[in-house]
């Protein structure tokens, strides 16, 4: 298995409960928006890839026939199932690699993936698999952190993420995602690029394994030039980082024949 995938299993297994309760993951306004965009129907089948804390599965399950919530990390998925089974009785839980899905062609009306794809080492394989299992005219909704077009800003963002989280692979740019969609006959029909604010201390602590690692992340930000700190809106108080902003993209595609 790819080294990044092994780190994903280790990282998310250790921090599974944090992703169920995380404010950004559990209470993001995008959860309401994605239901509005997708307009799910009672007869439809949904695949939620890299479900994490299960927040998308929970949001969609009342509106559809069944949700297949998948994740690479067994402990993460088991923890999510314990929570979701209390409120959703039409969700199945399957240990699955996003880049090698164990489903037949054209099985799903809707495929979703939220705040996870930056952990996938081969995003081109992920998108090919999404297109393969999605029914003709089915909907694919992706939400993820994206890197700016400017190379120095993209490099800063991905280096920062890797310092904070050893399971990080790479945030793609919007343009890179669009190229992958085009190659797999996924037509973009709606999108939204927005700034997402992190409460810095809790964001760093969610994945850091030591105070030393947290210190490295802090120092990397302090060492960044003024233009970088301005772009990511680094906010400090009493010489401590309080918050920062990154770019997040929400996009819905339709599978063309």
TrEMBL record:
Pfam families: Methyltransf_11 (PF08241). The keyword Methyltransferase applies. Residues 47-141 form the Methyltransferase type domain. One of its GO terms (biological process) is methylation. Keywords: Methyltransferase, Transferase. The keyword Transferase applies. It comes from the Bacteria. GO terms for molecular function: S-adenosylmethionine-dependent methyltransferase activity. Belongs to the methyltransferase superfamily. This is Class I SAM-dependent methyltransferase. It comes from Bacillus yapensis. The lineage of its organism: Bacteria, Bacillati, Bacillota, Bacilli, Bacillales.
